[in-house]
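[Meeting: bench + compute handoff]

Bench side (C.D.) handed over the final construct sequence. Compute side (W.E.) agreed to return the predicted structure before the next meeting so the bench team could plan truncations. Sequence as handed over:
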Amino acid sequence: MNKKELKIPPHFKPEKAGEVWKVEYQEIAADAENWANEHNISPSSSDKFKVCLLAVDMQNTFCVPGYELFVAGRSGNGAVDDTKRLCEFIYRNLNVITEIIPTMDTHLSLQIFHSIFLVNDKGENPPPLSLISAEDVQKGVWKINENVCNNLGVDPIQAQSYLMLYTKELSKTGKYDLTIWPYHAMLGGLGHALVSPLEEAIFFHSIARYSQPNIQIKGNNPFTEHYSVFGPEIKEGINKEKIANKNTDLIEQLLKFDAIVVAGEAKSHCVAWSIEDLLNEILIRDKNLAQKVYLLEDCSSAVVVPGIIDYTDEADKAYLKFARAGMHMVKSAMPIKDWPGIKI
């Protein structure tokens, strides 16, 4: 198989990286088959050195300006630039990437991080981007909305106790305070879909390399935030009952690859917590496994809302920790075959 870096197919339009459109599957499939033949690209099943790309939450809701939670970064155009670079990375390394695992943040209206879930004494909901601390809950500033409890079939008193436990546990484990996010990545809505240029690139890779994308859905549990693809923020309730489970199957699948490449949005939240969980699993097994993880540092941006919140420093601090643990910081313009530790 030809392992040299490939050129970018002519159908890719980088100027459309921040737009939404209908992917012409039949045409792209024909182009992908012709491209594979022209460039002597073999099926992924023939790869001796197996490379996986974990593309975290590259969805319209995060990647398209004007959508609910566009990840602007400090540049103001973060996720658009990230999308462009990630698509180019996939096309140039089409013959090396064995499998792509896109994750999809997936939400419903009645969830603990949405405004409707909480009320104050006046019956008002917290505005988007509010941070709810354990102290707020203890003082009664915010409490569970009983109408939500009625719909979900939970006792309001127990639900309030759970909210207290939840916010305390977030603080104790060093996670962000409960954040009230704008309604986003709503299941069935346009924001939930993969951003069009990346959807197209993944489909092109799937056809050219006979490689089924392994799409991972996360985030639809009403009672917990779920930044990391490997598990939610809180897994147990007030009586130690299971709220949600860790995605152990995905962890096992990933660690079978020779190289794991990570990119996506947002660097400060879903990407950072996913890498953190992966690192913790690696440290349980063998710390040297961290050396098979490669972080595309120019294909992820932090959550920044000017004058309100800026998580850039937190994201950079997390990536420094990952690098010290043995993970590699790499740029998307460098071919995979030239990365340290790659044996292709």
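W.E. noted at the follow-up: The mean pLDDT is 94. C.D. will use this when planning the next construct.
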